[in-house]
Amino acid sequence: MMTKKSDLPDIETASFLAAQLRSVFRRLKRQLREHGGPRDLTPSQISVLLRLEAYGPDTVSSLARAEGVRPQSMSSTIAALQDADLVTGMPDSSDGRKTLMVLSKKCEKLLCEVRAARHDCLTRAIMQKLSAQEQQQLGQALELLNRLADDGSLD
User: Fold this and answer.
1) Dist. CA 152–CA 137, nearest whole Å
2) pLDDT band at 153 (very low <50, low <70, confident <90, very high)
3) What's the predicted TM-score (pTM) here?
4) Percentage of the chain exceeding pLDDT 90
5) 6 Cβ contact list (under 8 Å, min separation 6)
6) 43-103: in CATH 1.10.10.10
7) Would you list the domain boundaries of the chain?
């Protein structure tokens, strides 16, 4: 079945929507970061914590490679996280010469609290700023966004 030309997306519309999405996501991310997040952690420290949470214990040198920094820089980042009792070192069971960095219980609790605070903040904003009909529209928009993100590739 042929589709009418007006039914086909055009590059100008797609480009405009892409810019708007990036802008909205950036503003939402900034606002959520202000609610419940640890204010004394650097972006590098947060990145390391999230990497350890996602992929599990790792060595300082491996973390440095993954984050694209020098091992000395990663050592400084890890030292600050250890001082804050957010990560601890444990011996590598397969190679006793290596130390694996792992999230502390305090850090795991902090991450849960931060996510809960951000979730609550966003829930309140949706309830206060959007009507029931708008919430339904947001749900439909999320279906479309999930389709964009489903395969993990924006190619």
Assistant:
1) 24
2) low
3) 0.74
4) 68
5) none
6) yes
7) 43-103, 105-149
